[in-house]
Write a structure and sequence with these properties.
With 319 residues, the chain is α/β, with parallel strands linked by helices. The protein has 2 domains: 12-54, no CATH class; 61-311, Alpha-Beta Complex (2-enoyl-CoA Hydratase, Chain A, domain 1), CATH 3.90.226. The chain is built from 14 helices and 8 strands. The protein has helices at residues 9-27, 34-52, 57-64, 72-79, 121-126, 134-149, 167-171, 174-187, 202-209, 227-234, 241-248, 252-258, 276-294, 299-311; strands at residues 80-85, 98-105, 108-115, 154-160, 192-201, 213-217, 221-223, 263-265. A hairpin with a 2-residue loop joins β2 and β3 (108-115). α6 runs parallel beside α8. The radius of gyration is 21 Å and the shape is globular.
C-alpha cells in the first residue's frame, strides 16, 4: 500500500475510492463500474499533478523523507553491476550507515559510496537511520584513497539527516572525521560525481558531496540544518519548521539558482517513491552525463577545477 503524506489526504481518498470500486466489481460479477473508476483515476491524476507542480519547501522535505523513496541500496542494485562491498575503516569498526565498494557502471569500473537509511524497523536501526559515525567517514576516506590509487571515478549517493551526534561518535572524533572526508573529496585526482537522492543534511552530507559535479533529485533537499533544528534555534519551537524551510533555501531549484549544485534531476510525477525504477534510471542517465563531462581531464586540472568551484561559491547574487 502507498504511504500518503499529510498534504495528500484528498488524493488518498480519491485513489482509495477507485480501488474500492474495482474490488467490489471483482466480488460481484457483472457489476460495471469501470467508467466511474476511470473518472476517479483522471481526477486523482489531475490532483497529483497540481500538488507536485507547486510543492512548498516544507512539503519537499516531507517527500525527500518518504519511507518508500528509493535508497542508496536500491540505486546500487539497479545501476551498478559486479558490486563488491568493502567494509570497515581499518581502525575501529564497520559502519552500516555507509555503503561502499567496487562496481561497474555501464561496464566501467568505479567506486560507489552512499548513505543508507534502511527500509524497515530492523534495517533502520541497523543502519542508524543513515546517520554515519566517524568510522563511516573514515571508511569513505579509505575507499576514496583506493579509487585514487587505481584511477577509478567515485560516485556518491547522499541521503542522510546528518552525521550521528552521539556521545561515542564525539569521543571518536566525529567532526575531525567529517573534515577529513571533505578534504579527501577535494584531494583525489579522479572524477567525483555526487547525487543527493533524498536528504542532504549538514556536514554529514558535505563530507560525501564535495564533488566535481553535484546533482539533486527534483524533490530532494540539501541544507546546513534540518528545518526542525533551525526552528528550534531561531524560534525556540520546532512548530516553525515551515518558515525555516522557506528561509533555508534547501530545495534543488533554489540551490541550482544559487550555484551550489550543477543540475536538477527530474523525478516521476508524485515523487521517486511512486515509480522507483524510473527515478533511479533518470539518476543513472544524469550520472553518466556528468562522468562524460569529466572524461579525459587530467588529475592536476581536476583538483584545480574542484578547488575553484568551491572557492567561488558565494559570488552568485541572491535573487
Amino acid at each position: 500500500m502507498t504511504t500518503y503524506l499529510d498534504f495528500e489526504k484528498d488524493l488518498a481518498e480519491l485513489e482509495g475510492k477507485a480501488q474500492e470500486l474495482r474490488a467490489m466489481a471483482q466480488q460481484k460479477k457483472g457489476m460495471d463500474i469501470e467508467a466511474e473508476a476511470t473518472a476517479l483515476d483522471r481526477k486523482a491524476a489531475s490532483m497529483l499533478s497540481d500538488l507536485y507542480n507547486d510543492l512548498s519547501p516544507w512539503r519537499k522535505c516531507q517527500v525527500a523523507r518518504h519511507p518508500e523513496r528509493p535508497h542508496a541500496i536500491d540505486y546500487i542494485g539497479q545501476l551498478f553491476t559486479e558490486y563488491t562491498s568493502l567494509a570497515g575503516d581499518r581502525n575501529f569498526a564497520e559502519d552500516a550507515a555507509v555503503l561502499g565498494g567496487l562496481a561497474r557502471f555501464h561496464g566501467r569500473p568505479v567506486m560507489v559510496l552512499g548513505h543508507e537509511k534502511g527500509s524497515d524497523t530492523k534495517s533502520r536501526l541497523e543502519r542508524n537511520f543513515g546517520m554515519a559515525r566517524p568510522e563511516g567517514y573514515r571508511k569513505a576516506i579509505r575507499l576514496m584513497n583506493l579509487a585514487d590509487r587505481f584511477n577509478l571515478p567515485v560516485i556518491t549517493l547522499i541521503d542522510t539527516p546528518g552525521a550521528y551526534p552521539g556521545k561515542g561518535a564525539e569521543e571518536r572524533g566525529q567532526s575531525e572525521a567529517i573534515a577529513r572526508s571533505t578534504e579527501k573529496c577535494l584531494q583525489i585526482g579522479v572524477p567525483l560525481v555526487s547525487v543527493v537522492i533524498g536528504e542532504g543534511g549538514s556536514g554529514g552530507a558535505v563530507a560525501f558531496a564535495t564533488g566535481d559535479r553535484v546533482a539533486m533529485l527534483e524533490h530532494s533537499v540539501y541544507s546546513v540544518i534540518s528545518p526542525e533544528g533551525c526552528a528550534s534555534i531561531l524560534w525556540k519551537s520546532a512548530d516553525k519548521m515551515r518558515e525555516a524551510a522557506e528561509a533555508l533555501r534547501l530545495t534543488a531549484q533554489d540551490l541550482r539558482q544559487l550555484g551550489v549544485i550543477d543540475r536538477v534531476i527530474k523525478e516521476p510525477l508524485g515523487g521517486a517513491h511512486r515509480d522507483p525504477k524510473a527515478a533511479i534510471a533518470m539518476a543513472g542517465d544524469a550520472i553518466s552525463s556528468m562522468l562524460e563531462e569529466l572524461e579525459g581531464v587530467e588529475s592536476k586540472k581536476l583538483r584545480a577545477m574542484r578547488r575553484e568551484k568551491y572557492l567561488s561559491m558565494g559570488d552568485t547574487k541572491l535573487n
